[in-house]
Amino acid sequence: MDKTKKVLIVGNSAKEYALIKKFKNYNCEIFVAPGNSAISEIAKCIDIREENVSELLEFVLENDIDLTVASSEVSIKNDVAGLFQANGQLIFAPSKLSSNFAISRSAGKKFLYKLRIPTPRFAIFDKLPLALDYLKTASMPQVIRTDENSLTADRLVCTTFANSKTFVEDLFCRNENKVVLEDYVFGHEFTFYVITDGYSALPLAVVANYKFAETGDGGLLTAGIGSYTPDYKISKDIESAIMQDVVSRVLDALQRKESPYLGILGIDCVLTENNDFVILDFKPFLSDHDAEAVLNLVDENLLTLFEACAVGSFADDYEKIDISDFSSVSCVISSRAEGKIIKGLELVESDISNFGLKKNKYLEYETIKGKNLVITRTAKTLSRARRHLYEDIEQIDFDGKKYRKDICEQVENF
To answer: What is the architecture of the domain spanning 5-93?
Structure first.
């Protein structure tokens, strides 16, 4: 009988929740640091914060952990991968140096410019007066973002100088060190995911993204509020072009810097009207809003796959990633207030990933303010997945419930 392996997952959000559910299909014991109350219902949580990488290493050494998967940006920024690799421990995650372009927006933009990869016109500022001078003559709309992801409002699409000025002033008042300004590009947004050991890479998924908070692409610009995969709008020619013109060049550049990128890399793109693409951003793992949608379609054993990347046998062991011919649609459900009792979850047949909801003394889930749940439905076709997804969303009831009603709306025969 094969030995039961021990796996440590580092993080505490919806993507880790989805990852844990996938790993529960394998012969392994799962630990999560730090996790949250929802995650504690499906795995053993360890009271170690994501940034305390030396404590994470101690836990791994003391408990004979076979593989660590660090999916949280906080742990990656604190170089958990570099520390683990220096101590001979298997970890599936990029190092701090190799992932800087995927965590820092300014670094990512400079990296794209240096590699001559198409990206919208941008500017980076660390002083308010210079940013305001730029905005006076900038084309509108402008996308204004902080340098790194934030728990508060960290991005906005501004259509006038007046509201862009207000938002930039607000960011600098919050002591943001840098702001990134970028021309807004109209088109179809999608994320191209690959898995890599730093030297070779294979496509993992193409995901259509919904980032505006309101139905019809209105309201605030978010990190993601819904998705579907596969993205039928992206041709094989576009996929091949991204692999050749973006992924290969990025990995080659990092190898030359002697900082190969190991892990899952997401590339945020826009498909323009002339069927070309531009690159907006990078991400150092799957996003919360699309993790379950992607993982539901992966037919590989992730434990074996991640280990192959970590030990360096990926190129020899894998010629392609086996992906099912099903489709997934996801939607984020948010709440305008905290402490509202959520009803109807037991009626839902779709997959549910949890952002960290807590149960009250009556064992009822109560809302947190902001994103609460990712609901994902997988089916033979996108149209069927979408129909059943929204039927399940209707079963969920609480005061202040909010979600987009138009995800995958134009799908008919896919």
So the answer is: 3-Layer(aba) Sandwich (3.40)
